Amino acid sequence: MEFSTRSLSPSESRIVLALTEQGRREVARREIINLLGVSEKAADHVIHSLRSKGWLERASWGKYLLIPPDQGPEALGESNLLALASRIVEPYYIGYGTAAGHYGLTTQHRNVIWLATPLHLRDRRIGEAEVRIVNPAANKFFGFGPVDVLGYKAVMSDREKTVIDCVDRPELAGGVGEVAAIVATASRRFDWQKTADYLERIGSAPLILRVGWLVDHAGADIPPDVRDRLLLLGSRSRKAFLGAKETVKDAVGYDPTWRVFVNATRKELHESAGLGRRRIIKKET
Predict the structure, then answer these.
(1) What pTM was computed for the model?
(2) Structure confidence by residue, pLDDT tens digits, 195-209
(3) What is the pLDDT confidence band of residue 285, given thresholds at 50, 70 and 90?
(4) Nearest one of 110, 92, 88, 89 to 101, comparing CA atoms
(5) Cβ atoms within 10 Å, residue 138
(6) What structural domains and CATH numbers belong to the chain?
(7) Among 7, 144, 186, 276, which has the minimal tally of Cβ within 10 Å of its Cβ?
(8) Rounded to an integer, what distance in angstroms lies between the CA atom of residue 169 and that of residue 242?
């Protein structure tokens, strides 16, 4: 791979070239010290210079990500921020509104990256993004796997788990109105059996009822047997609540089928109503 090194010093070029030739995207501070054969102070100076020029970004203490030469030193977009966030802790997954955005389920742009992990850490900032730590219950920490973000591997909740998580925590996905749109958009390419399996594994009847109501609200083509299964699983709960904690004027109100009190207005949910229904395009004769 050819790229310009005119803006890099010999030491800086040595690091970038070595990592590029090895096909690596991550490097530790100690590796840079050993590679250059210099003191810690001198290596830190080179690291600082590469960071200021946009070739390295700090992922966590003593660990850095290379911004690939083929992407250019200015390639510090959202995907690279996800890659950086993914190096903060293990185990983890990127989820909620962040994952919904990655899958194209929401058009809202947020400067927040939601990182789920069983470990208790403080929130932190990466570039212009704020990384907020979520500690889901043990029975909710599943349904994720590696995804590619501009050549980096990051662990993210899959489509079905992302939707379930957003319904479970609407405040982490833009609110009830946005979550309703996420459910509707995702439902067109849903693995319904997987969704039902996930919900049964979590074991929260109120959550099942909320998902069921949103699926019906979206007019999604849920298989009848899966819908019946959700109704049966949700029957363990007398009722569920969806929406703001404070009373909302002109709220949708109680739905007897799913036993959900929807504390949101029809106006707030208007754009997602029927959005999951498949459109049949009529051919002109």
Answers:
(1) 0.76
(2) 999 999 999 999 999
(3) very low
(4) 110
(5) 8
(6) 10-71 (1.10.10.10), 77-157 (no CATH), 170-285 (no CATH)
(7) 7
(8) 10
